[in-house]
Amino acid sequence: MHAVAALEAVARAKVHAVAALEAVARTEVLMDESASREEEKAFRESFVGLRVALPDYQGGGQGVIKAVVGQVVHVVVGDDNKGWKRDAETIVTSHLDELEEVKEEK
Predict the structure, then answer these.
(1) Quick one: 40 and 74 in the same domain?
(2) Residue 81 belongs to what domain range?
(3) Rounded CA gap, 83 and 72, in Å?
(4) What is the pLDDT of residues 78-88, one digit of tens each?
(5) Cβ atoms of 49 and 64 closer than 8 Å
(6) What pLDDT is recorded for position 85?
């Protein structure tokens, strides 16, 4: 009878050890995911303020990246002081792979 109780205790200890290892692994994965999220956010924010050329199917022209939300890029285009509403922003959405950086002319 004591041998069975001892084997059950060893089995419980192994189950607890495995559970502890799984918890450590989950914590490491969450830490990696949060670090990669921060890196991805910094990468997206590095595009804000960049002057880009819009594709022809979106009317062509140039604009400045205002924000990057997920895979969607918000580009401000046009002259802010024209139209029926003064200082209104015209924003076009696009994807990063559809935009091309425009070098500043001196």
Answers:
(1) no
(2) 48-101
(3) 26
(4) 765 555 565 66
(5) yes
(6) 61
